[in-house]
């Protein structure tokens, strides 16, 4: 019972941290993709910001629950394996989200190169990729869930080998 209380408290703390760092986090990755700073304050209406914000906050808040699910489902008892399962969830989320950022950066460079060859001379005339087309929040959520699946596969397979 004490563990579940700690998990809920940690999840709420991560949600609160994610809520306050969302603009910085997305501004950092958006400027990395586009190559220029991006402001989130007045760029979208409130109704378009609520759902992505909830997905972003939920992506961080669900990590302790996914860890608890993996730990209970695979019956992980050693501290080393528990830390390893948490690192697999967070590490794979970072890797898959990073792959999305690299892909978008490549697409923007490809688009700019194509438009420059089409005789657009100044960089100001060349359109970029819109923030709404990046879909960073859903990819962050999907990468966290993929990390949980990888952790489940790895530790369920290792627990099956110990039984045989």
Task: Tell me about this structure.
With 164 residues, the protein is mainly alpha-helical. The protein is 77% helix and 0% strand. It contains five helices and no strands. It has helices at 2-34, 46-61, 63-73, 79-117, 136-163. It starts with a helix and ends with a helix. The model has no long low-confidence stretch (mean pLDDT 81).
Q: Per DSSP, what share of the residues sits in E-state strands of 2 or more residues?
A: under 5%
The separation of the N and C termini measures 32 Å
Helix content, binned percent = over 70%
Low-pLDDT segments, ≥5 res: none
Number of helices, where a helix is a run of at least 4 consecutive DSSP H or I residues: 5
The main pleated sheet reads as: none
Helix/strand order: HHHHH
Number of strands: 0
Overall geometry: elongated
The whole-angstrom Rg is: 20 Å
Taking all residues together, what is the mean pLDDT? Answer: 81
| Structural class category | mainly alpha
